[in-house]
Amino acid sequence: MRWAIAAAEHRSLRRAAEALRVRESTLSRRLRDLEYRLGAELFERSANGTRLTAAGDEFIAVAKRILAEADAVFSRMRARGRGESGDLVVGLCMALSVGNLRATLAAYAEQHQAVAVHGIDGARSRLLADLTTGNIDVFLTAAGHVPWNGALLPLWSEQVMVALPANHALCESPVIGWPDLADARVLVNRRDPGPDFETMLRTRLGSGCGCVFIGHDVCLDRFLGFVAAGLGLTLVSESAAGTSDRGIVYRELHDDEGPVRIRFAAYWKETNRNPALRPFLDLLRERYSDTAPSLSSE
């Protein structure tokens, strides 16, 4: 079809053959073969050159559309193969209002505008199952307590904040220590990193601390709504502290060494063949080059 289009555009087999870098006799023979297969004459040949017949006009118009669509498909497939287009599904268990995750996703979207990024929130067990089955490409969550045998990349750490109802007595303190939380009514979100915060509290305060733990399984903004309503306090990462401030006061949590921090990591399967995943991981490594290299969580 490309040779027929060239002959039509140049209106001369000689000039078309020169443009295609083939012998004129070869081009003429190929066009004759094409006309034979179609059962229609496409060109009127004369000493002055070639001219399309009515059938030729129709064929060339269709051929151009077909080749344009084919070229577009090949271009998209090559871009997809290089990770420049397609879809990336990210499991999320942290806030997006501010912080490193938001900045990373923004940078990735700017660099890979043809890639559609899809976010999935939920409980850790569900997202790990989705990661195992390939329903998500990468899972970003708190590090250290994830039962995962695949690849992981340590990322940033964030300061742990205490989210308090605005009328809570601890709001008067500029910073809060672990002992201040003894006997507190603590709201625990079953979605990450809620279980990690609960583990922190139970480990630091001990089994006899007197805290009352009340479980929830809701998205972050709804979860913080329970805090604002005065149902209890909770621990959040510093990025989550920008999610809501109506009726909530945030205070830094300190221990003997200073501010308490929680670390995050990226988890994925080495067998994942989605080309869009590799540039995302490369961006994480580039932005957090001071962290350890990719390794197994075993």
Automatic annotation (TrEMBL):
It holds the Pfam family HTH_1. The keyword DNA-binding applies. CDD domains: PBP2_LTTR_aromatics_like. Residues 1-53 form the HTH lysR-type domain. Keywords: DNA-binding, Transcription, Transcription regulation. GO terms for cellular component: protein-DNA complex. InterPro entries: LysR_HTH_N, LysR_subst-bd, WH-like_DNA-bd_sf, WH_DNA-bd_sf. One of its GO terms (molecular function) is DNA binding. Belongs to the LysR transcriptional regulatory family. This is LysR family transcriptional regulator. It comes from Xanthobacter autotrophicus. The lineage of its organism: Bacteria, Pseudomonadati, Pseudomonadota, Alphaproteobacteria, Hyphomicrobiales.
